[in-house]
Amino acid sequence: MEQKKSEWREWLKAIVVAVLLAGGIRYFIFAPIIVDGYSMMPTLHNHERMIVNKLAYKIGMPNRFDIIVFHAEEGRDYIKRVIGLPGDRIEYKNDTLYVNGKPYDEPYLDEYKKQVADGPLTEPFTLEELTGQSTVPEGHLFVMGDNRRFSKDSRHIGFIPMEKVVGKANIVYWPLGGVRIAK
């Protein structure tokens, strides 16, 4: 009888440790997220499931064009692409991104640019026209969705404070046929 109690205790300890470990990993390191909507098409599709690396930016800043998850004002998490880093001047003209006066290629937009027949995919703007500021403020990001015509992003909600960034999202794990690293 005593052996059965000891065996149950060991099983219970193992289960408790496993639950605590899984909870800790989920809360502090990785978290699942479901893509909700079409703002990141064609890179990400509605209802795809991704893993968010919460440690990616605890020490440093995101890189330009990273796909990030952040807490939006409406109490929801958004997933967008980093376009502007602190100190950057951002401008769009003739469907081309200019950062600090230098044009940047955005190959993830090529598919949509080919489909657009009635004007540019990304309407022309300068950061100053949108925000009243000439550069991205320190500790903030300027983000945009890949589906430029149908994305609620920094053009509408403003700069994203770094403390609102949850982490980097680039691993799609569901549906199984679509498992990939999103770029």
TrEMBL record:
<dbReference type="InterPro" id="IPR019757">
    <property type="entry name" value="Pept_S26A_signal_pept_1_Lys-AS"/>
</dbReference>
<dbReference type="Pfam" id="PF10502">
    <property type="entry name" value="Peptidase_S26"/>
</dbReference>
<keyword id="KW-0378">Hydrolase</keyword>
<dbReference type="GO" id="GO:0004252">
    <property type="term" value="F:serine-type endopeptidase activity"/>
</dbReference>
<dbReference type="InterPro" id="IPR019758">
    <property type="entry name" value="Pept_S26A_signal_pept_1_CS"/>
</dbReference>
<dbReference type="InterPro" id="IPR019756">
    <property type="entry name" value="Pept_S26A_signal_pept_1_Ser-AS"/>
</dbReference>
<keyword id="KW-0812">Transmembrane</keyword>
<feature type="active site">
    <location>
        <position position="80"/>
    </location>
</feature>
<protein>
    <recommendedName>
        <fullName>Signal peptidase I</fullName>
        <ecNumber>3.4.21.89</ecNumber>
    </recommendedName>
</protein>
<keyword id="KW-1133">Transmembrane helix</keyword>
<dbReference type="GO" id="GO:0005886">
    <property type="term" value="C:plasma membrane"/>
</dbReference>
<keyword id="KW-0645">Protease</keyword>
<dbReference type="GO" id="GO:0006465">
    <property type="term" value="P:signal peptide processing"/>
</dbReference>
<feature type="transmembrane region" description="Helical">
    <location>
        <begin position="12"/>
        <end position="35"/>
    </location>
</feature>
<dbReference type="InterPro" id="IPR036286">
    <property type="entry name" value="LexA/Signal_pep-like_sf"/>
</dbReference>
<comment type="similarity">
    <text>Belongs to the peptidase S26 family.</text>
</comment>
<dbReference type="InterPro" id="IPR000223">
    <property type="entry name" value="Pept_S26A_signal_pept_1"/>
</dbReference>
<dbReference type="InterPro" id="IPR019533">
    <property type="entry name" value="Peptidase_S26"/>
</dbReference>
<keyword id="KW-0472">Membrane</keyword>
<dbReference type="GO" id="GO:0009003">
    <property type="term" value="F:signal peptidase activity"/>
</dbReference>
<feature type="active site">
    <location>
        <position position="39"/>
    </location>
</feature>
<feature type="domain" description="Peptidase S26">
    <location>
        <begin position="8"/>
        <end position="174"/>
    </location>
</feature>
